[in-house]
Write a structure and sequence with these properties.
Chain lengths: ~260, ~775
């Protein structure tokens, strides 16, 4: 009996190790993707608060609409409401897994839509501490994964996985993500810059579940450790499956977006 | 007083064990602060915390992105930079520079964000990529943009297209500032070494704030590693020739080392951080400690030569020297403490450290040194001192030719006085480093081609949040930059309106007609948003625009110029601003260069007050110590005249006075007064105790202190001559002037002072 027990023990450990950290990391990412699958489209109101090391603050308000795209990155439309001089400016983006994103901006003062051809996903979004690549949808194929360990964030159990971008022009060598075991959404992300030193930390809080499935945070805070600047993104009025379609996410719809 | 001197001098020898043990313990306790002592590696150390220019500059730095940087200048030896090989080098180096520790952003010709229109598309991309694949057309396109876009031309590329630069913006965590800076400097040097090997036909130069900072540290460390040991060895050799006794030299050596260690240790305890301008304190303490010890040892050996037993000879030496050493140390300390009136903290530190060192050496030479000497074997041979006779002859000569000497000295003083007025407070802060320091030559090269450190910063406020988008504001800002570009000193103006113009053009199909400012606030704000959305990693608008968009930062790169020229430039700018833009847009110029420009005058004014106060205090002390108002007033002349002569020679030879020279007055006052004190106290003793006539008393003074004065002047001169070798101009210039003044002081005390006594302190009939 003893021998069988030992054999079982060895077997079980073999099984446990049969899955490499890479596989486990990827498995978690796939699960996260699966759980967020099928929301079709969503909209929310966003308040962005920029703060520099000196404590000077600036507030911007916008509305955001997202269209779920299968097999590629999601499409996004952002309409700016505040400050008044940029009211009505609208930003349309088609994010892609590995290629550069497509971006258009509608400038009401010029009454024109301009396509911005830029290779960088790594640039800052509206001068904030969030880069475009931090805000775009987390498609599985965008990254290589490595499971590290389990660790709780503020008492909430989470997987810790290391994520390395597969696309060119990223601002990061890697990021470390704490994914909630309950919600399969990121609770915290540490970003490491191109020379692999800790650059920023994103903390998401106030997660709520919508339509009994989709978790969204109320607040995301991005703190830059190097510049001591900070951006707080507050979300409100989340709505899902509001009937948005492809037609609401193209160049001509940009001008109509109010 | 005499009873105290007698009691003290005997007590020291009687309780010599306690004296030695206590001295060592106290010195050790003070020296334990040495572990807290480090170099300050920020050029800001030259400015007090409440210096208004520093406060203004820090506010700008906190509002916008910090501008600490490493600036690598690249110059191919043949042809311009628009050859595939050089462009490839820039591309590779840009890539590698991202790996620099604490780097936040790398800017070069290669990753310049070029924007242009293609139908309705706004293209934002690096100026070029994959340099090896560039066609001739591409090269022409790159060249055209680089030599026309105001964001590149004369900023990242020189006028002739032969020089370019890579700017690495750094953000130091400041957790361990010295290590962080060393890391960046070492990485940069390695990077350049690698590229020099790979590209032997390309020259590289490095400047920028980080290298300015490291040059201050390296200049200070260099002085500590070379000049301090040289001074020490020279002092020891000199002492050996003078005293001819290894034991005595050993005693002096301990006094020097203890004084330096205790003073620097105390500096560490009270939180002083060293800078190259305060490093000379080590050598100054050395020199002044020697001067104090000499008096004790010379008297001691003199008594031994006259067969006085060792213990008795020592207490006799203490008794004789207690008052003069005490007096001269106090006046020296006052002179150095006068440096607290300087606007430049390292000079405050220098004064305070030396004052502490002089105090320690005063205590040690009166207690520890004689106590120690009582244990050491000192062999002497009695020999007639032939110098005494020479000094007596000299005395007769002076007395005989007193009128001639008086007229001659008066002429020299008047002439010097005239040349003093020729001096101008003018300096260039990069010239603090002489040409043996690579940072200086590299910065000079950068300045002659691209500018580099010669940069001014203006934070121009608008009215209210988002106010920078108002057409009126942009128009005024644009006028300002256009006017600046017309000034002969201006090399480049980096201003938001140039970006605005370019965007407006891009948004109108790259039509050159539209290289204008947007006409409505909304349009300007939306361009800004567009621009913000298109910026690459590491760069945000915060470099030029504050968080709530109520002010923009404008950079002017200027030619190398002195503080006087710069202040003139700035005052012209201020006049223009007052006459041409609304009150709300007025802004002072800031930046390191501006801070150094302002501090020079302030420092001189501060030190003028400090020097006058020191002079008054020293004169009052002399009047009381010498117990004669008349002699006290006469003593003013030999104290002031050497300073006049010194600055007169400077005005004749150099004209330009830097801030290091402002401290010389107060400092040398404290030092040269020692000569006067020694001469006058011997003179008065002869008159009062021995009832000598003025003439006879002068001869007495010559023969009794003449040699000591020559010896201490030589010691001081040797010390400061060594300091003259410092590659840090604030130190070497200061040492040069000090040397002249010390030499002048000896001449004045030997010629003018006796004549003044003959004229104004005649024997009462």
């Amino acid at each position: 009996m003893k021998k069988i027990g030992l054999l079982l023990l060895i077997l079980s450990s073999v099984f446990a190790y049969a899955q490499t950290p890479e596989e486990k990391g990827r498995e978690i990412a796939i699960e996260a993707d699966k759980r967020d699958n099928g929301f079709a489209n969503s909209s929310s109101k966003m308040t962005m608060t920029l703060k520099n090391a000196n404590g000077d603050v600036s507030i911007r308000k916008m509305r955001s609409k997202t269209l779920e795209v299968h097999g590629d990155g999601d499409k996004g439309l952002t309409i700016f409401d505040h400050p008044a001089d940029i009211k009505g400016t609208a930003f349309l983006s088609f994010t892609h897994v590995l290629d550069a994103d497509d971006q258009w901006l509608y400038l009401p003062a010029l009454k024109r839509v301009k396509r911005i051809s830029s290779k960088n996903k790594s640039g800052p979004f509206m001068g904030s501490e969030f880069a475009f690549e931090d805000l775009s949808s987390r498609e599985v194929e965008k990254y290589a994964y490595l499971y590290i360990k389990d660790e709780a964030v503020n008492g909430e159990d989470a997987f810790v996985i290391e994520v390395r971008p597969n696309y060119k022009y990223s601002g990061y060598t890697r990021s470390v993500v704490w994914i909630s075991k309950e919600k399969y959404q990121p609770l915290k992300i540490d970003y490491y810059d191109r020379k692999n030193s800790l650059l920023k930390t994103m903390s998401a809080s106030g997660y709520q579940q919508y339509l009994g499935q989709y978790w969204r945070p109320d607040v995301m805070v991005m703190a830059n450790h190097q510049t001591k600047k900070e951006t707080r993104l507050g979300f409100a009025d989340y709505q899902f499956k509001t009937g948005l379609s492809e037609r609401d996410f193209n160049k001509s719809s940009l001008k109509r977006a109010r | 007083m005499h009873r105290i001197e007698g009691f003290f001098s005997e007590w020291v020898i009687k309780h010599r064990v306690i004296v030695i043990v206590l001295s060592v313990i106290i010195v050790a306790a003070a020296a334990s602060g040495l572990r807290h002592l480090s170099f300050n590696n920020d050029y800001r150390a030259f400015f007090g915390e409440d210096n208004p220019e520093l406060v203004a500059f820090n506010e700008v730095e906190n509002t916008y992105t910090k501008s600490d940087n490493v600036f690598i200048v690249i110059s191919p030896n043949g042809g311009d930079v628009f050859q595939p090989k050089v462009l490839g080098l820039i591309e590779d180096m840009t890539q590698d520079a991202w790996q620099m520790p604490h780097s936040r952003r790398v800017d070069s010709l290669q990753n310049f964000q070029n924007t242009y229109a293609e139908e309705d598309d706004l293209i934002v991309e690096d100026l070029y990529e994959e340099a090896s694949d560039l066609s001739e057309n591409d090269l022409q396109r790159i060249k055209k943009i680089a030599l026309s876009d105001p964001l590149l031309f004369k900023r990242m590329v020189s006028e002739d297209g032969r020089v370019t630069a890579i700017n690495i913006v750094l953000e130091y965590p400041k957790l361990n500032p010295n290590e962080e800076l060393k890391e960046v400097v070492a990485t940069t040097r390695q990077l350049i070494k690698d590229y020099e090997e790979k590209y032997p036909n390309v020259s590289f130069y490095v400047t920028g704030v980080s290298f300015l900072n490291t040059s201050f540290v390296e200049a200070g460390e260099g002085d500590v590693m070379t000049l301090v040991p040289i001074s020490f060895v020279l002092m020891m050799i000199f002492m050996f020739f003078l005293l001819k006794s290894p034991s005595a030299v050993f005693g002096v050596m301990l006094v020097i080392i203890f004084s330096d260690m205790a003073a620097l240790g105390m500096a560490g305890h009270i939180g002083i951080q060293l800078s190259p301008a305060s490093v000379p304190s080590t050598q100054m303490i050395m020199v002044l400690a020697v001067a104090n010890s000499i008096h004790i040892l010379v008297s001691f050996i003199f008594s031994l030569e006259h067969k006085v037993p060792q213990g008795k000879a020592l207490s006799e030496s203490i008794r004789l020297n207690l008052q003069p050493i005490f007096l001269t140390s106090v006046t020296t300390m006052i002179g150095f403490l006068g440096m607290n009136f300087s606007e430049v903290p390292p000079f405050n530190d220098l004064g305070n450290i030396v004052a502490m060192g002089v105090f320690v050496s005063l205590c040690l030479s009166l207690t520890f040194l004689p106590a120690l000497m009582s244990y050491l074997p000192v062999k002497v041979k009695y020999q007639e001192d032939s110098d005494v006779e020479k000094l007596a002859h000299f005395s007769t000569f002076v007395i005989k030719n007193q009128n001639f000497i008086l007229v001659g000295m008066a002429a020299i003083v008047l002439l010097s006085g005239y040349f003093v007025t020729q001096n101008r407070a003018e300096e260039q802060f990069l010239k603090y480093f002489d040409e043996s320091i690579q940072f200086r030559t590299d910065s000079d090269f950068a300045a002659s081609t691209l500018g580099g450190l010669y940069q001014l910063v203006y934070s121009v406020p608008a009215e209210g949040k988002g106010g920078i988008s108002e057409p009126a504001y942009l128009k005024n800002l644009d006028n300002f930059s256009q006017w600046l570009k017309q000034q002969p000193e201006t090399i480049n103006v980096y201003v938001l309106t140039d970006t605005m113009r370019r965007l407006n053009k891009n948004m109108h199909g790259d039509d050159a007609e539209w290289y204008t400012l947007p006409e409505s606030r909304e349009l300007a704000a939306q361009y800004l948003l567009l621009y913000e959305m298109s910026l690459p990693y590491g760069l945000d608008l915060n470099n030029q625009v504050n968080v709530d968009k109520s002010a923009t930062r404008l950079f002017i790169t200027v030619q190398a110029m002195s503080n006087v020229q710069l202040l003139d430039y700035e005052s012209r700018i201020q006049v223009w601003l007052k006459g041409n833009v609304p009150t709300s847009m007025q802004a002072p110029g800031t930046g390191p260069m501006m801070m150094f420009a302002h501090i020079s005058d302030k420092n001189i004014n501060g030190m003028l007050k400090g020097s006058i106060l020191a002079l008054v205090l020293i004169s009052i002390i002399l009047i009381f110590a010498l117990r004669s108002l008349k002699i006290g007033i006469i003593s003013l002349v030999p104290n002031i005249v050497p300073v006049v002569i010194g600055f007169g020679i400077w005005g004749l030879v150099y004209v330009q006075v830097n801030m290091g020279l402002a401290i010389v007055v107060s400092m040398t006052l404290g030092i040269v007064v020692d000569d006067t004190v020694h001469f006058l106290s011997k003179y008065l003793r002869a008159k009062r105790e021995k009832g000598y006539s003025t003439e006879k008393a002068i001869t007495y003074a010559y023969t009794h202190v003449g040699k000591a004065l020559v010896v201490s002047s030589i010691v001081l001169t040797v010390g400061f001559v060594v300091l003259m070798m410092s590659p840090f101009a604030l130190n070497s210039d200061m040492a040069k002037l000090t040397t002249w003044i010390i030499a002048a002081a000896l001449i004045v005390d030997f010629l003018l002072l006796p004549v003044l006594l003959l004229k104004f302190d005649k024997d009462e009939k």
